[in-house]
Specification:
seven-stranded antiparallel beta sheet, Small Protein B, Chain: A, about 35% helix, two-stranded antiparallel ribbon
């Protein structure tokens, strides 16, 4: 097995934790990403972030991820990539059409939720159609999370005694 193709010991799995808090996630898709050589090498080292990123369509109905940060490759030369460049997402026409209609009609947005490398060594991005939460929805989420933590503490204490 080659170094890049074989099973990787350290799996790359970069999450966007803010997306679940700021948005109500409606429908999910898995898309491929068009990357250059230094981008995939830097991604394999885990030097990427999708926290502030979002997806948008260009004039020719292609979907791009914007504001995704992939740090420059340390051993790259003058051929190194730009850290915050827009990167094209690969989806089939039916999925692109469905996403475009949902964004256009109901004012939804498309947010990346997870960036990973699959078993074949290809970079994939999980994206979701999302609707922005209002402030009171965010407060409700915080309250639910705190209640769940409190309940878990009580359960754990009752098991010990």
């Amino acid at each position: 097995m080659c170094y890049f193709c074989g099973p990787m010991k350290n799996r790359i799995d970069i999450q966007n934790k803010k997306a679940r808090f700021n948005y109500e996630l409606l429908d999910g898709f898995t898309a491929g990403i068009v990357l250059s050589g230094t981008e995939i090498k830097s991604l394999r080292q885990g030097k990427a972030s999708i926290a502030e990123s979002f997806c948008e369509f260009n004039d020719s109905s292609e979907l791009f991820v914007v504001n995704m940060t992939i740090e420059e490759y340390a051993h790259g030369s003058h051929y190194n990539h730009l850290p915050k460049a827009s990167r094209k997402l690969l989806l089939n026409k039916r999925e692109l059409k469905k996403i475009r209609q949902a964004v256009k009609i109901s004012g939804n947005t498309v947010v990346p939720t997870r960036l990973f490398i699959n078993d074949r060594g290809l970079a994939k991005l999980n994206i979701s159609l999302a609707k922005g939460k209002k402030l009171y929805d965010k407060r409700e989420t915080i309250k639910d999370r705190d209640n769940k933590k409190q309940l878990d503490r009580v359960k754990k204490a009752s098991i010990r005694h």
